[in-house]
């Protein structure tokens, strides 16, 4: 159990995240992790994607035990919590509503401030969690948020002053991983499995097309279709094609996706003149993109910020750190605040 910091002005933030299919709660003290609990919903696996109604119901079942566990593991009493931060959006409405309603009721019951957090800002602010051995990016920096729902390049001027300078015009990069994986017969979410097989395959074995999109924007729907046509053609000729070539196919898919991301990131660095680059979101767990950034540090002298694995996929520690910085600015929410499925940075 963590030792409780003893300073009089200790700020304890309880963070609650329920935007998609992970029910999560975390307690931070002065920006340092005291607990970080995530209940990942298994129910969606059999459907090959998140089923919104089932996600909402699972959040309702998980939220009390998850919050209870986060507070207990932090070794504090509810009365010691300074404020409650929650994900207001973007995300699935039915999922967001569970966390939002719970956060509002608990903050009201405890008589403490309520702090709404934008999930995408939180993926970026995860870099400000106090962690030994991890440096925080100086402002301004570029953040590429890559997840199952989003793909953006953001110019971060300050904690809450962010500008989207590029984004996907259709599918998110996580969907490109997951849908390609589904075509290969891998279970949802397929991204981590593609990564695993890719590590043992030849990235140049097969060639997939890179989309031509202007500026700093992305497009991934054509990529998924290219993978589908390629696999259909190959399996017509050899029904065992996937089985025989799985590692090489995964490596080639990952290689192309990472190239698409890195091409735009290099363009963004060139256009803005900012060479501090951070990544966040589920896909930032991918070994291909991580290695590409380590390489860019050496080759282009970028300063890269790569999150710890537990802060890549959805978690509540990132919500709590965003809440911490809002708490310092006394940016509290009104109890009339509501969940917002579409919520811009
Ligand atoms: O941020 P996140 O947990 O949820 C959203 O907000 O979407 O991201 C989930 C996405 C999924 O598409 C999952 O397949 C992908 O992140 N992902 C990965 C890896 N780990 C998670 N994709 C590629 N390689 C990985 N290692
Ligand atoms: Zn996310």
From TrEMBL:
Chain's role: Required for the formation of a threonylcarbamoyl group on adenosine at position 37 (t(6)A37) in tRNAs that read codons beginning with adenine. Is involved in the transfer of the threonylcarbamoyl moiety of threonylcarbamoyl-AMP (TC-AMP) to the N6 group of A37, together with TsaE and TsaB. TsaD likely plays a direct catalytic role in this reaction.
Cofactor requirement: Fe(2+)
Biological process annotations from GO: tRNA threonylcarbamoyladenosine modification
Keyword flag RNA-binding: no
Signal peptide: none
Binding of substrate, residues: 145-149, 178, 191, 195, 286
Protein name (Swiss-Prot/TrEMBL): tRNA N6-adenosine threonylcarbamoyltransferase
Chief subcellular location: cytoplasm
Gene: tsaD
Catalyzed chemical reaction(s): L-threonylcarbamoyladenylate + adenosine(37) in tRNA = N(6)-L-threonylcarbamoyladenosine(37) in tRNA + AMP + H(+)
Any one Gene Ontology cellular component term annotated for this protein: cytoplasm
Cell location: Cytoplasm
EC number: 2.3.1.234
Pfam families: TsaD
Record bears the keyword Acyltransferase: yes
PANTHER family for this protein: TRNA N6-ADENOSINE THREONYLCARBAMOYLTRANSFERASE (PTHR11735), TRNA N6-ADENOSINE THREONYLCARBAMOYLTRANSFERASE, MITOCHONDRIAL (PTHR11735:SF6)
Similarity remark: Belongs to the KAE1 / TsaD family.
Entry keywords, A to Z: Acyltransferase, Cytoplasm, Iron, Metal-binding, Transferase, tRNA processing
GO molecular function, one term: tRNA N(6)-L-threonylcarbamoyladenine synthase activity
Species of the source: Zunongwangia pacifica
Entry's cofactor comment: Binds 1 Fe(2+) ion per subunit.
EC class of the enzyme, as a word: transferase
InterPro entries named in the record: ATPase_NBD, Gcp-like_dom, KAE1/TsaD, Peptidase_M22_CS, TsaD
Binding of Fe cation, residues: 119, 123, 314
